[in-house]
Amino acid sequence: MFTGLHNLDEVLEDASGNTTFFSYDKRNRLKKVLYPDVGFTKAQVIDYYIRIAPVLLPHLHDRPITLKRYPDGVNGFFFYEKQCPSHRPSWIETTQVPSRRKEGKIDYCMMNDLPALVWAANLADLELHTFLHRAPAITMHENKMTATKKKRKTLRIIFLLVLEQG
Fold first, then answer.
1. Structure confidence at residue 39 as a pLDDT band (50, 70, 90)
2. How far is Cα 45 from Cα 10, in angstroms, rounded to an integer?
């Protein structure tokens, strides 16, 4: 088990014994600062994801995920990526979800294991936006997205409270 990041070489050699998720990235990009106010680097984000994976992965398992990527860090440009990138490694699991805006389907990434989570962190995916249901729990019927009968059970309810000073 990976016990923490002490230098950049450890990330390349030790995370789950799988080094393929860094094969397309230059090592010096791990030194890229993603949180400039505190100097937190991409390597430190990856280390953080590895450390919280045992707690985080059960909540992400089998859920379609929208990536929110910050290629220039949190103070720079960001974008949402619903369609799992075509350059993803073959071991990244995906699930198809009907598109509401056009005919067809979107292949969403799923973060079902540590290598997938580290791969997403390496893309500077700093926010993990999941569906509230597990895949494959939605289908299209008469232009409406509905839960399948098999997986109709509500998994959780989320309340967003916005408190204003005043």
1. very high
2. 14
pLDDT at 55: 93
Position 72, amino acid: D
Residues in the chain: 166
Residue 73 zone, left/alpha/beta (φ > 0; ψ -120 to 50; rest): left
**Radius of gyration of the chain measured on its C-alpha atoms:** 18
Instruction: Find, among 138, 123, 38, the residue nearest to 88 by Cα.
Output: 123
pLDDT in tens, 65-113: 999 999 999 999 999 999 999 989 888 999 988 887 777 888 999 999 9
Q: Which domains does the chain have, with CATH numbers?
A: 8-150 (3.90.920.10)
**67, β-bridge pairs:** 81, 128
Pair of tokens at residue 1: 């088990």
DSSP 65-114: EEEEE-TT-TTS--EEE-SPPTTS-TTS-EEEEE-SSSSSEEEEE---SH
